[in-house]
Amino acid sequence: MKLPIYLYGHPVLRKVSTDITPDYEELPALLANMYETMYASEGVGLAAPQIGRNDRIIVIDASPLADTFPELDGVKLTLINPTVEVLDGERIVRGEGCLSLPGISENVPRVEHIRMRWLDENFEQHEQEFDGFLARIIQHEYDHLEGRVYIDHISPIRKQLIRSKLNNIVTGRTRCDYAVRYAPKKK
Ligand code: NI
After folding, report:
1. How confident is the model at residue 88 (pLDDT cuts 50, 70, 90)?
2. Residue 26 catalytic?
């Protein structure tokens, strides 16, 4: 089942999400729905806040980017309660987009090298280092669990330049090919 994607401006995207436990209700169904939603909207990652849940759950399938980054072919990750540690300080700037910010793409500086600990869908523990574009995708999705979005990392000048586009998203005046939930109207 496809789920609507919560857009920039919605408070659910600004809360710090909480760890889940093995008794989390209907996790397999939720993960299946998250993958289906991500594929239908042509994203390569989706974090639970984007479907309106402040739970620390992320799905990633980076395969669509394999034309540009061959190492991403077949890379699929289900992340439960991940923690990300930055391993080196050099920041590389590359373009990013986000299903919660339709019609926008901005250059974002991020470190190239991280270590992540996470649980898979069976609550088995993993630890691995990641670099390159996959490290970027992970940091982008992990930001969602911390109440951040990628444009938090761009310069105030860039943010000013896309302000009207952001306002259109916040006020529900944007067009999108997938089902969305807008921010509640301000009283
Ligand atoms: Ni995103």
Report:
1. confident
2. no
